[in-house]
Amino acid sequence: MKSNVKRLFAGPYILWMIGFTIIPLLLIVYYGLTTKSGAFTLANVCSIKTPEHMKALLLSLGLSLAATAICLLLSYPLALVLRRRGIGAGSFMVFVFILPMWMNFLLRTLAWQTLLEKNGVINGILSFLHLPNIAIINTPWAIILGMVYNFLPFMILPIYNVLAKIDDNTINAAKDRDVINAARDLGASFTQKLLWVWLPLSVPGIISGITMVFVPALTTFVISSLLGGSKILLIGNVIEQEFTKGSNWHLGSGLSLVLMIFILLSMALIAKYDKEGEGNAF
Asked: Which terminal residue of the chain, N or C, has fewer Cβ atoms less than 10 Å from its own Cβ?
């Protein structure tokens, strides 16, 4: 009886997954592997090797890797501070990190465009203080800044979630505390404990955070459009233009299949290093 009730409640979720995930993915695969006449082809996928597409892909990889590295460097110390203070998941400080996610993604990016543009808020303040203006808008640095701002919570929360679990009452947490106490009793310095104890214990959260930042950063086109202008084209912009301006769904789907390879690799990393879902903070 209970199993039938569970299946009944799972029905809407299954229908949602079929309608909004599986069917769209199947359409992308179909369009990506066919021509306009419906014949099978790999030309759409192989078009990634053209100079303009390869340049956009490599630039996307470089900027997304840089943004992911910056998010990791900023997030780990913050997660350690939150964990050391014993702050719960419902506390005000954690709420502050989640709060920007409640605002529309487009509005957050538009706000940075207003701040960074030539006659924007930041340059207005610098001019008032008789300081030189900054010319960061429409540059790769502006795109990286937008990525870091928008995706930073996705790095902080998984790492904090893993670190916070070390202090709970589970068996694994007790073993983790034993390792930390042993390192402290043996005279390990803070750096040694960080490198040899904290980092290994928090690998699931780190891998989860890297994946949750790298994948959306690699596929984004809104941030690069607003903060990079028409001068900088990422692979997401190329795909978006093929669907909207070029009306070439086959080529756009073929390039999307290439990006799906990176998504599958990220999923494989999570499956390998976060088997128990410890880094899942959502």
From this structure: N
Q: What is the DSSP code (8-state) at residue 187?
A: T
Tokens 């980092």 -> residue: 199
> Strand, helix or coil at 34?
strand
Please give the structure tokens belonging to residue 233.
């084209």
* Burial (CB count <10 Å: 0-12, 13-18, 19+), residue 173: middle
> CA 161 → CA 87, 149, 204, 251, distances in Å?
11, 20, 10, 40
Its sign, for the CA torsion 249, 255, 256, 261, is positive
Token pair 């780990």: residue: 76
Residue 52's Cα: distance from chain center in Å? 25
Question: Cα angle at 149 between 228 and 21, to 5 degrees?
Answer: 85
pTM of structure: 0.86
Distance CA 57, CA 177 (A): 43
Give the model confidence (pLDDT) of 63-94 as tens digits: 999 999 999 999 999 888 887 776 555 567 77
Closest CA relative to residue 217, chosen from 236, 191, 241:
236
Q: How many CB atoms lie within 10 A of CB 176?
A: 22
